[in-house]
Design a protein that fits this description.
- The complex is a heterodimer of chains A (about 140) and B (about 400).
- Chain A has about 140 residues and is mainly alpha-helical.
- Chain A has one domain: Sufe protein. Chain: A.
- Chain A is built from seven helices and two strands; from the N terminus they run H-H-E-E-H-H-H-H-H.
- The longest helix of chain A is centred in the last third of the chain and has 25 residues.
- The two termini of chain A are about 25 Å apart.
- Chain B is about 40% helix and about 15% strand.
- Chain B is globular, with a radius of gyration of 22 Å.
- In chain B, helix 3 packs across helix 10, helix 4 packs parallel to helix 5 and helix 11 packs parallel to helix 14.
- Chain B is built from 14 helices and 17 strands.
- With about 400 residues, chain B is an alpha/beta fold.
- In chain B, the strands form five sheets. In chain B, strands 4-10-9-8-7-5-6 form a seven-stranded mixed β-sheet, with helices on both faces. A four-stranded antiparallel β-sheet of chain B has the order 13-14-17-16, covered by helices on one side. Chain B has a two-stranded antiparallel sheet with strand order 1-2.
- In chain B, strand 1 and strand 2 form a beta hairpin.
- Classes of the chains: A mainly alpha (about 140), B alpha/beta (about 400).
- Chains A and B meet through helix 2 and helix 3 of A and helix 12 of B.
């Protein structure tokens, strides 16, 4: 699936919820279902600064695609990072860099995260795009 | 006599706000308090009728504004029972008051090999200025540890004082644990060795009677915005004998006596420490807030807030898995807690969506969180306009958050 296709899927999932408590319940479920990260990566090197809770993010490049794993000590943050991974993982660096991520507005996610959370969200997205940029330059010879 | 909480609530317009379609419950008073109409009006009236730059003009408005500003200074002196009005220095807030002392006292009195004592429970504002000053001046910063209940370990403190100790800087009330520190005893011990003591009073002044002469503090710092007055104004109280010996902190404006091409002579107290155009509206706000507190009665406020704390403690402890941080016998009206292994941010988000403002996270006390080995806490901090019914709503919200997150 392309990034815009995954985004529309998420938007339609969120449209089923009547209020924010349901949306949080869903994020909590997503947080619980985020695949475990290799504890080896849970070091300062992979820690994203700018988040209020701790978030570790790691990425690999295989056959033209980027694959992310992540973890956080807060469950709702894990849910959010799970959504971002769903959108970005197994995509090309180019597509990751081009993604506008309109789903964050359309699901109300960005608006409903407190500013400090929203900064954390931005920090996560920035870090994911940074990985894509580095892989693009390193493996695809583009600058 | 019943505490007139409904009458007080009516004075605070923001308390009738609805958030997420629910009546706001404001339990973040340790971060900043809300402002009564009287304070809001005092600021408006200042701009409508009195605005002028002070200490500079001979014209009618300037004289009036100057008188009002200086009157505010003396109202503050009475409020904290200081000896003289010129021992009250206006600053931007507690943080700036502490920075002023760290910079100025540090420059004059702290040298290589000297020691400064603070505690592990300090807010960053009473921590980082000392840490940086000590690094710069090659001095050592020492930390009073805590007992299990969140009180200061006074035995450890006693042993920490050495012939090299130059200053003790501790908080009156911990913004995380709520502990009311035995400041009289802390100061008396330091004074036995002729060591001055700075007290961070940010969490204290709006909640209890403060008498700087009775406690014998050498410096006492607090902010307007945590005592129902505006942001951007704070106070440094300093004993005249220390302030006289300290060099100016910032230069320019009314802090001068005479300026020559080659040098400058400085103004007397308190102006020596008040560079630039002051925050006159802020001073008007503080003056009015003090009157408001005085009319309500500090003793009654203190007693009512203790009731709120007692009720909140009892109700929260009914929830399984609640862990309180700070259980000292003398506590101010704030309560820090965690439940089970739920991250404070997760709980904070759910509680927020239920219309309740609590603080979550490290609460500007990262060294304390490191000391307690926790990522942060959830903190509900009460003011005299809060009610038991609001505490009931918090308890329901905490239960809901637990149900969702466990």
């Amino acid at each position: 699936m392309t990034i815009p296709e995954i985004e529309s899927q998420i938007i339609s999932e969120f449209s089923l919820f009547e209020d924010w408590m349901d949306k949080y319940n869903y994020l909590i479920e997503l947080g619980k279902s985020l695949p475990l990260m290799d504890p080896h990566y849970k070091t300062d090197q992979y820690l994203i600064s700018g988040c209020q809770s701790q978030v570790w993010l790691q990425a690999e490049y295989r056959d033209g695609k980027v694959f992310f794993t992540a973890d956080s000590d807060a469950i709702i943050t894990r849910g959010i990072v799970n959504l971002l991974i769903r959108v970005f993982t197994d995509q090309s660096p180019r597509d990751i860099l081009d993604a506008g991520l309109a789903f964050l507005e359309q699901t109300g996610l960005r608006e409903h995260l407190s500013p400090t959370r929203s900064n954390g969200l931005n920090a996560m997205i920035k870090q994911m795009k940074l990985y894509a940029l580095v892989f693009q330059q390193k493996y695809e010879g583009k600058s | 006599m019943v505490f007139p909480v409904e009458k007080i609530r009516a004075d605070f317009p923001i308390l009738s706000t609805r958030v997420y379609n629910k009546p706001l419950v404001y339990f973040d008073n340790a971060a900043t308090t809300q402002k009564p109409l009287q304070v809001i009006r005092a600021i408006t009236e200042y701009y409508e009728k009195e605005n002028c730059n002070i200490h500079r003009g001979v014209h009618f408005l300037s004289v009036r504004a100057t008188e009002a500003y200086e009157d505010a200074r003396c109202v503050i002196r009475d409020f904290i029972h200081a000896k003289s009005c010129h021992e009250i220095i206006f600053t931007r807030g507690t943080t700036e008051s502490i920075n002023l002392v760290a910079a100025s006292f540090g420059k004059q009195f702290i040298h290589e090999g000297d020691e400064v004592i603070t505690s592990v429970m300090e807010h960053h504002s009473n921590f980082v200025p000392w840490q940086q000053m000590c690094l710069e001046r090659k001095a050592t910063l020492k930390f009073i540890p805590l007992l299990e209940d969140g009180s200061l370990d006074m035995d450890a403190y006693r042993e920490m004082i050495t012939p090299n100790t130059r200053l003790v800087a501790v908080t009156h009330i911990s913004n995380v644990l709520g502990t009311i520190n035995p400041v009289n005893e802390i100061i008396a011990l330091a004074h036995q060795h002729n060591i001055p003591v700075l007290i961070d009073g940010a969490q204290a002044v709006a909640h209890m009677n403060v008498d700087v002469q009775e406690m014998d503090a050498d410096f006492y710092c607090f902010s307007g915005h945590k005592m129902y007055a505006p942001m951007g104004i704070g106070i440094l109280y300093g004993k005249e004998r220390w302030l006289e010996q300290m060099p100016p902190y910032q230069m320019g404006g009314e802090m001068i006596k005479e300026v020559f091409f080659t040098h400058t002579t400085f103004n007397e107290l308190p102006f020596k420490f008040e560079a630039g155009t002051p925050n006159v509206e802020g001073a008007m706000g503080v003056r009015t807030a003090i009157r408001y507190l005085g009319e309500t009665g500090m003793d009654r406020i203190d007693a009512y807030e203790k009731e709120l704390l007692g009720y909140a403690t009892q109700r929260l402890l009914e929830i399984d898995g609640i862990q309180l941080y700070g259980t000292a016998p003398h506590k101010a009206s704030l309560i820090s807690f965690l439940m089970n292994n739920i991250h404070p941010y997760d709980a904070g988000m759910i509680i927020d969506k239920l219309g309740i403002a609590v603080r979550t996270g490290h609460l500007c006390a990262q060294p304390l969180m490191e000391y307690l080995k926790i990522p942060g806490t959830i903190r509900a901090s009460f003011a005299f306009y809060n009610t038991n019914e609001e505490i009931d709503r918090l308890v329901e919200a905490v239960k809901k958050a637990k149900e969702m997150l466990l």
